[in-house]
Amino acid sequence: MKRPSWPSWMPIDPYIAALLGTVGLAALLPARGTPADVASGASTAAVALLFFLYGARLSTREAMDGLRHWRLHLTVLLCTFAVFPLLGLAAKGLVPYVLTPALYSGLLFLTLVPSTIQSSIAFTSMARGNVPAAICAGSFSSLAGIVLTPLLAAFLLGHSAGGFSADSLLKIVLQLLVPFLAGQFLRRWVGGFLSRNKRVLGLVDRGSILLVVYTAFSQGMVAGVWNQVTPARLGALLGVEAVLLAVMLSLTWYGAKKLGFGRADRVAIQFAGSKKSLAAGLPMASVLFGAEASLAVLPLMLFHQMQLMVCAVIAKRRSRDPEAAEARAVDPGTEGVSSRAGSAASRTAAGTAPRSG
Questions:
Q1: Cβ proximity of 16 and 305 under 8 Å
Q2: Whose CB among 179, 311, 336, 351 lies 3.0–4.6 Å from 52's, allowing a Cys bridge?
């Protein structure tokens, strides 16, 4: 029997649809009392499991091989953890006229989250860019984000992210860094199992994140934080994020050209340096924001869907560049790889990708 697939004409990622459904469930049936305590404990365990799986999947050998292209990786890291946050800080001038303080905190947190891995690779290959560089750049960004994102959030967001204290640092280390390092240490023994069960583990990934979202939005509903948001404010947030994405896409493309990178490297820099990871950002927000996490992750959820749709269009256009055609003519063997990756990128935008990065 043929497995049902998500309709290609649907404009929304099915994982985003599941996230929105989870938000709706939390709005109608928020966890209270003992169920809330159980959900909170399960969410904490889910966050630890997520970062254990991230650590177990990251190939140390690939990461070391990628160090040879250090200028490209440094450029992506600077875009992700320096340029993005600076733009986020500049947006503070929009408070309170365009954004509420709570939405601005979520927007600033969005700019601190690491880049994606899977979708960056798929879009880079579809546009016939430097795929190995995209793999390493996304991996390095995710690895650096485990440390940099919480530290930057504590420094820039202050009490909005729980403050900078020994307790918050210990919580971050225990819930994020320790499971990640454990996954790296055990990769030798569990790597084969993970490779053979990617589909099941993808469901575990997404299920864990849905649990984190339900817990965060339940806490927000109980605390009454959604009374602070109006449709007009949400529309303003979408407009601000559209400008943010456009600025980063332009900076990564034309800035990389000014730095002397070739076309293939510029493609990798554009897709790895302009995107933010929903999968990494959601569990981090639940650790850092507590009851305020529901509003903190809203800008990230909206930005994630926007970046997938826009980057899918850009990748298709890049694949028709004259330079891409020349590369295809020189190495016809890459055609099948790029076609498969292009299909993967389309599925990412349409929602059938195995994991939303």
A1: yes
A2: 179
Name which of 261, 240, 243 is nearest 252 in CA terms. Answer: 261
The amino acid sitting at 130 is: N
CA–CA separation, 205 vs 354, rounded Å? 10
Polymer length in residues for the chain: 357
Task: Name the band, by pLDDT with cuts 50, 70 and 90, for residue 271.
Answer: very high
By C-alpha distance, which of 308, 311, 299, 304 is closest to 238?
299
Residues contacting residue 285 through CB under 8 Å, at least 6 positions apart: 109, 216, 293, 296, 297, 300
How far apart are alpha carbons 38 and 16 in whole angstroms?
25
- Is omega for the bond preceding 96 within 30 degrees of 0, making it cis? yes
Residue type, 98: V
- H helices of 79-130, where? 84-90, 101-110, 118-126
Q: What is the CA radius of gyration of the chain?
A: 20
Maximum pairwise Cα distance, the chain: 64
Q: Would you give the DSSP letter of residue 128?
A: T
What global pTM score does this model have? 0.73
Query: For 23, how many CA atoms within 13 A lie in the half-sphere containing its CB?
Result: 13
Higher pLDDT, 5 or 292: 292
Of the candidates 304, 318, 283, which has an alpha carbon nearest to the alpha carbon of residue 172?
283
